[in-house]
Amino acid sequence: MRSTTDRGDLTARATIRNAALRLFADRGPDAVTVREIATQAGVSPALVLHHFGSKDGLRAEVDAFAAKAFDGIFEAMPPEELVELLVGGAPKGSLAEAFARGFPPGSPLPAYLGRLLLTNDPAGAALFAQWYAATRRLLDKMVEMGVARRSEDPDIRAAFFLVNDLALILLRNPIAMAIGADPLTPEGIDRWAREASAIYAEGAFSAPRKE
């Protein structure tokens, strides 16, 4: 049985981790000190080191927490449901919707993911590899179900789908400025998904006119 002190320690540990996540997302892990994390969490630097041993230990826990949160987006939905999102005719028919709805308003996770993926961070590379494999399995399932054409280069096609979806996270702010809506809100994802679905299903270009 855990004591009251143990439960308090667990709460403090999560508070420290969440403070570090937000600071890492805003400025990058290398630019943040243990003292700044402690101040953000409302604890002493000694308590941060007590729980995590070092800033590297804290960063490893933040990475693990972020990876679990993002992986849960795929794990919570079987391939058949993801296929339905893509081809079922619903307004939110895009795999990007599965990403976007996993981020609560104000969450630092999208910004943190952007840093991981754009700085050649090993944790970001591992996440991308996992999501790429999941996307490839999804496309194979769609071909098997007869709702997607077989590709001459399925590796490239899987990467294309994944990169297009991740663009909503990596380029969230520029996209918001361009279209006048945050692409990770219901309004933004609805608009994005409608057009993405039309492009995937119908194509974006017409055949050139013959003179």
Describe the protein.
- It is elongated and about 75 Å long.
- The protein starts with a helix and ends in a 9-residue tail after the last helix.
- It is an all-alpha fold and 211 residues long.
- It contains eleven helices and no strands.
- Residues 1-8 and 89-93 have low confidence and may be disordered.
Throw out a few tags for this protein.
disordered N terminus; 211 residues
Order of helices and strands: HHHHHHHHHHH
Q: What percent of residues are in strands?
A: under 5%
User: How many strands in all?
Assistant: 0
Structural class: mainly alpha
Terminal Cα span: 82 Å
Morphology: elongated
Contiguous helical run count: 11
Sheet of most strands: none
Radius of gyration: 20 Å
> Can you give the mean pLDDT?
81
Contiguous runs where pLDDT drops below 50 for at least 5 residues: 1-8, 89-93
Portion of residues in helices?
over 70%
Task: Give a brief description.
The chain has 211 residues and is mainly alpha-helical. It is 72% helix and 0% strand.
Map the helices and strands:
Layout (H helix, E strand, L loop, with lengths): L3 H24 L6 H8 L3 H8 L2 H21 L3 H9 L7 H6 L8 H10 L3 H24 L8 H17 L1 H8 L6 H17 L9
